[in-house]
TrEMBL record:
Pfam families: Rotamase, SurA_N. InterPro entries: OMP_Chaperone_SurA, PPIase_dom_sf, PPIase_PpiC, SurA_N, Trigger_fact/SurA_dom_sf. It comes from the Bacteria. This is Parvulin-like PPIase. It comes from Alterisphingorhabdus coralli. GO terms for molecular function: peptidyl-prolyl cis-trans isomerase activity. Keywords: Chaperone, Isomerase, Periplasm, Rotamase, Signal. Residues 187-284 form the PpiC domain.
Amino acid sequence: MTFALLTATALAQTVNDSEVPSTELNLPEKLTVFGSNDPNMRRATAIVNGEIITGTDIDQRLALIVAASGGKTPSDEQLKSLRLEVLRNLIDETLQIQEAAANDIVIQQADINRTYQSVAQGNFRIDPAEMDGFLRKNGSSPYSLKRQIMGELAWQRLLGRNVQPFINVSEEEVQSILKRLEADKGTEEYRLGEIYLSATPNNANEIFQNGRRIMQQLQQGGSFAAYARQWSEATTAASGGDLGWVKLQFLPNELAEAARTMSVGQLAGPIEIPGGFSIVYLIDKRQILSADPRDARLSLKQLAIQFPQGIDEGDATNRAAAFANAAKAIRGCGDAERAAQQVGATIVDNDNVRVRDLPGPLQQTLLNLSVGEATPPFGSVKDGVRVLVLCGRDDPKVATGPSADEMMRTIEDERVNKRAQIYLRDLRRDAVIEYN
């Protein structure tokens, strides 16, 4: 049964932040709210098949997005549009949870908590023990994020039961693609992140403008993975939008053309593709079935000096110059200890460091070094100055490419994603949704 929504605000149940509450509500069809508007009152904004989405739900989810963008508050106009988009996402999330429940899928609290801790570390770079306080400080709540995680897990398991078993990929199809990969040896493949926003001819301009706002927030320092979790409608949203390694011919033409001209770390979008718009982020690229020098493993010694707080800029410059001269005089890793003592530097060993895991500006510098040579000094007065001495390098072996099983999973994931979009579209069509 659905609840008629009055012009007055509707009273919602109290939520315990430590748990994701049951979505089964038992509210009267008619109610009267007495007194002034209480900011702690969870005011109904929409009812989805009898389940209330409140203004508080929207505010807290919106606060998650602002937190993911580094705390940069959008303009009033942007906030108005973002609220509408957040409401749409909450409606989809509610439909997904309801459909999972109708299929007897139960998400355990322990699974939600594990993912919550992973998101704290991976998306927000925060100690999980501090995550609850961080969210409340930024106007959100643990409940809001855990509810989103619950929706993601419910949808994944629902697709795993109702869609994935019916996706068929033949061995001949897999072998055909692997042969093409072998033929394309030496050409490039790309690791992309994607935020996919579905659109229809009626709302295309609105979705495009929302995509532009997301781009602005990302360019101002927002976390791509966090934004993908919030906004992307692809099944890769739960993994931060990571598409994995793909060849351009497997992408829509519009995305392929954009990726071809992008540099690692660059954003592009919103790009119009069939069914909507995409924002893409080039995480990395490599040559197919070829050894990538950036996969080399390095053995390094790091020498570092720190500057006292408030040091005069001239003194800092002089000390950095002395450090640079000492670094130039290093003759192999065995000589690093002497050079460190000479300038009062600390020294740390770093073994098994992969080149591609280092900051971009350092990668090519280290690849050009011979064993025993040191990098030029780098850093700042605030963070200190460092040099790296190359003690050894294990060059990568020629890549073997994906296995047949890995390729089959890639094709299956792509087809599951397409079916998932159709599944959600059908849920929207069948839903009874009332707005305040």
